[in-house]
Amino acid sequence: MEAQYTAAPEKNTININKPDEVTFWTDRFDTTKVKLKAAINAVGPAVKDVEAYLNKK
What we know:
Number of strands: 0
Mean pLDDT: 88
Radius of gyration: 10 Å
């Protein structure tokens, strides 16, 4: 079953405080909330930076 999102995520940044965005980005990057949060803490909320960080791991 595909996840349902009630709000479109920001295009350039990830807001870890918005559950819908966390669900969207964890699905998009095939990762966990813990790893997503660690990536944001390491490189900031910019989508391109988080994606690059997660791809290195």
